[in-house]
Amino acid sequence: MATTKPVTQTRRRSRWFAELGWRHLVGVVAVAYAAFPIVYVMSASVAEGGTLTGSNQLFGSVVFDNYAALNATKFWTWMGNTLVIAVVTAIGTVLMGAAAAYAFSRFRFSGRRAGLTTLLIIQMFPQMLAFVALFLLLLNLGEVVPLLGLDSKLALICVYLGGALGANTFLMYGFFNSIPNELDEAAKIDGATHTQTYWTIILPLVTPILAVVGLLSFITSFGEFIVARVILQSEDNWTLAVGLYGWVSSLLDANWGLFAAGAVLAALPVLVLFLVLQRYIVSGLTAGAVKG
Amino acid sequence: MATIWNSRQFGLGFIVKLILVGLVDALGVFVILAAWRAESWWILGFMVLALAAINYTYFTNRHTLPLKYILPGLVFLLAFQVFVIFYTGYIALTNYGDGHNLTKDQAVASLLAQNERRVEGSAAYPLTVLLRGDELGFAIVDDSGVRVGTADEPLQPAPDAVVAGGKVTEVPGFEVATPQDVFSRQSEIVGLRVPLSDDPEEGSIRTQNGATGFVFRSTFAYDEAAGTLTDSVTGTVYTATDRGQFQAPDGTTLATGWRVFVGTENFTRAFTDTQYSGPFLRVLTWNLAFALLSVVTTFLLGLVLAIVFNDERQRGRKVYRTLLLLPYAFPAFLSALIWSGLLNRRYGFINQVLLGGAEIPWLTDPWLARLSVLGVNLWLGFPYMFLIATGALQALPRDIQEAARVDGAGPLRTWWSVTGPLVLIATAPVLIASFAFNFNNFTLIYMLTEGGPRFADTSAPIGATDILISMVYSISGVDGSAPKNYGLASALSIVIFAVVAIISGLGFRQTRRLEEVL
Lengths: 292, 518
Known about the structure:
- The complex is a heterodimer.
- By secondary structure, chain A is mainly alpha-helical.
- Chain A folds into 2 domains: about 10-65, no CATH class; about 75-285, Orthogonal Bundle (MetI-like fold), CATH 1.10.3720.10.
- Chain A contains 14 helices and no strands.
- In chain A, α3 crosses α12 (about 240-250).
- Chain B folds into 3 domains: about 1-90, no CATH class; about 120-220, Beta Barrel (Periplasmic binding protein-like II); about 275-515, MetI-like (MetI-like fold), CATH 1.10.3720.
- Chain B is elongated.
- Chain B is an alpha+beta fold.
- In chain B, α18 runs antiparallel to α19 (about 485-510).
- In chain B, β4 and β5 (about 155) form a beta hairpin.
- In chain B, strands 1, 2, 3, 4, 5, 8, 9, 10 and 11 form a 9-stranded antiparallel sheet that branches.
- Classes of the chains: A mainly alpha, B alpha+beta.
- Chains A and B meet through α1, α3, α4, α5 and α6 of A and α1, α2, α4, α10 and α11 of B.
């Protein structure tokens, strides 16, 4: 329409602004809002002195003292702990969740509907609400098997895996249902066992949802605080969430540069995973998952 | 049946299965034996049942096919999610917490040990301090030979020990502590109590100087039949009460007690004790308001942005979208900590730079702190809602909007009567899930304000931005900021369960998601 009408340049411009240009204006403001705390923390991480006051001038100085100072702390131990815990939990969650979703999606057995409903109900009660009971349970377990007691990373992983079915089976179940049953039938006729069908036919087809569940599980246990704080007691076993919180809660001003450098490094693995898997996440999330 | 045949066909799979289940069995038997030694019957029972279920499921082939896939997750789910919910209910009915941490037997043993004195005129034994790793132990020499023990292991004869000059110089499994060790760990050594036997009434060996040991025996005597503890020095008789404590006739109690059932006392306390009931209602109100306002604000901002970026002619939409997702991709606990620095009253970026040095108490004034929490949560939550709203908008059928336009509705009217309601219906399950998530958004509250500023009218550690879960965390005392009170904390957890159940129930009834999913 615009091309058929003879309009002056200014009118065309104002029309462009009325239809599209203002959207860019909103976009720039929104991006500034979204990005500014992250820009700020990057600036604080390279600020000289490493105090909260000294971090207020954005990129007033660019030195890497704060990053170097991390070597003298337990930061890298915490990073290692967090990655181990989050990766093992993610793998375990994907394996157990996918297997359960497969059973619910492909087999018809008595108690199937009841099982699904129960999972739906359990899913409403996050594990962390029972942190007192978890603490006391591990206190008792630790007297029997110290490896599964308080202050053990393995115990924390087991606790996180306890939430694997409740949180993810539904998301996966819906996706498994969208894979046509004829594929299984065909494989069965060709002589494949249910195990072969599951590993070689179904799993490759549901890779997107496996990626989403794995990533969500990784992010959740990466940032989980309350259970990790209650279970992991010695500094050597802490996760990043517990350790970095400690830095900020005590001596906020003095530790700020250290924290900022730690925060930038800690966020990196998550940001990278997020960007790589963005396509899957967006589709997976619109299917109804919530970030934990 | 069919699967037996399959297993034979699929030899490799069968071997893998055999190895995996074998490993689980080995671990399970190890735990069962350990539980037997520690007399933990609950753990033993669970492990026996779990192992039986695992072996039955994977090695018989009757009706267990679906279970083969569900069982691994199910075992963890039962132990670490279902069980702990019921365990929470059980703890809520007890007075478990500081002063009531032990069982009755443990409490009696502990009281006897606490009140030990040197037996007058008893023999002095040559004593050697031992080390096993970091653990301290004693070796003494008496008529029968050398006996060795630690705080946890009562004295046992050690026939292999080497004695020279009346003193023990070598014990298998231990190292003899050097004078430096003894000097640097003096207070630990003086405090160490090595029991003579498993019976706490027999007393223990203690030392003052690390070289001579004396027999100490309790001045308290426990009469199990009468349930009384008698102090032989003062003559006071303490009687066991049903509150889990020993009480003297004059009403004084001994500090070490044991856990007992107190019925619904924890629940009534939460609602009637003035220390808790007033703050509890304020916390509950704020918790509901926080969750609701969080959903509303994030959804509105996300929706507006989704509408703004829903015009296909606009260039750079992908870039905007990726950048707007930043707050969502950034780990939430880090964001909350960063914001706590940004909003710092004295040195924070917001006050110092954006507001030119104003000292606005963003996180320390009750109402401003609540506002800040909502503001930060808006930043954290809007990208997710932006994603959801974008998805919903793109899934809308175009002809409906066309129809509205043909019928003469303007853009606003179309939005209000057609597009808006459709988007709302499509996103309702997500909004409910988001409400439930924010209702328990512990990380945000704790990282940003730790629940503070504290209420002035109660000594309980509860503050203006506390939500139920952060209040429970503080009250439980697991972080050491308050006396431990597992019973009350568990009771409050049960209250949260109830609130969540009611809200989710209402929500699901509204959206009928249940029927859709099943």
